[in-house]
Amino acid sequence: MASNRGPVSYTLDETGRLTARRGGGGLVSGLSAIGPGTDAVWVCSALNDSDREAVRRTGGTLDPADTGGQHVRMLDVDAQMHAAAYNGIANSVLWFVHHMLYQTPMEPVFDTEFRRQWAAYEGYNRAFAEALAEEAAEGAAVLVQDYHLTLTPRMLRELRPDLRIGHFSHTPWAPPEYFRLLPDDIAAQVLGGILGADRAAFLTQRWADAFTDCCHAVLGPGIPSGTRIGVHGLGADVEFLRERAHRPDVAERMRTLRAQIGTAPDGRPRKTIVRVDRTELSKNIVRGLLAYEELLRSRPEWRERVVHVAFAYPSRQDLAVYREYTAEVQRVAAEINSRFGTPGWTPVELHVKDDFARSLAAYRLADVALVNPIRDGMNLVAKEVPVVSDEGCALVLSREAGAYEELGEDAVTVNPYDIVGTARALHEALSMGPGERAERTKRLAAQATALPPARWFLDQLAALEG
Ligand SMILES: O=P(O)(O)OC[C@H]1O[C@@H](O)[C@H](O)[C@@H](O)[C@@H]1O
């Protein structure tokens, strides 16, 4: 397996001690299901100086005590090359294209700086292809992950024609008219790189179709190399989540959260709208807050009776646009609190420090979960909440999330750009009776766990072999 982010990343303290921490996001959740006891090797990249130090100390093969027993080879790619490939191309161009995030008349600009970064991206993809060519046994299956590594499949194919190669995209795929913002030669390289694989797979049929449409538009009719296309909709890991959500640290955080949420003037517990995201532009956190503000403005009966618990965990803080977005989220939350708050009621509880136990606590007690991304490959939060909810939780879900294909029927769905429409959806979700809420949650949980991570992975392997 190959991905930019591995299962762990390190921090180095003043005493020189390295501590491994588990990474976040759907990709890591999916691949982590392939636990110890297999001969799988996970090739990933050092993401920061502490990771580079870990690579220096271990020679690149991480200590299994740090990785939960998985065999992990971490590559020490040149720091500048990694920065240009990861921040420059992967996060600022390919992520923006697939999530359709360019929104000003001056963006994007593909200039000589972009071409320089593209050369780094090629070098970065080649480093992976070379490492995989070294690691893989004769005839092995190799699963290459995501937009960071679109060129690797073709490069690896040239180095090792004996391998069976799969590529998996964890993001949406842009429709041709948006994908073709990319310069023609770059668009062709991205598609041609993935088509170097025997099989290219996606989280939903919608993204798979968009990829095929892009191939036709950019490369001409037909999938030229005979690459097969597949769909595997990653689901929630029900056993892990239910066990983890009932540990004492989660119960303790539920007590703290309940105290923060408090009771309404009539003495009943306040209703809770929960969201949990990386502070990510595509997650649409600011519009979510504005919709909540609109709810409080247009439906004064909810004032003092509801709290919006918003967890927005730091992400990609090397990029100015992410830092600015984080500040904007904080500014809008503070504004709502100063406009509507009273001495006994804080309308928005915004927390930015990553705490998985607290996220699970919020999932368990939420009355409403708000998942309103502009676009999202899948969105696992939408699938995790129904699985761990104690008494049923109404899901407000963007129709642009991949999870909508599976969960749309039992969610209250929204156009993520429509603030008034989202406020109405929040009102509808808050007003849903307990019986209906519990019934819908049960059906959502069944859908959400249809393809748990281990099967998601094994299905891909089986399909690649077939
Ligand atoms: O930049 P980061 O933090 O490694 O996040 C990347 C991952 O973020 C996840 O949320 C996406 O599902 C993946 O597509 C992506 O690979």
TrEMBL record:
Belongs to the glycosyltransferase 20 family. This is Trehalose-6-phosphate synthase. Transmembrane segments: none annotated. Signal peptide: none annotated. InterPro entries: Glyco_trans_20. Pfam families: Glyco_transf_20 (PF00982).
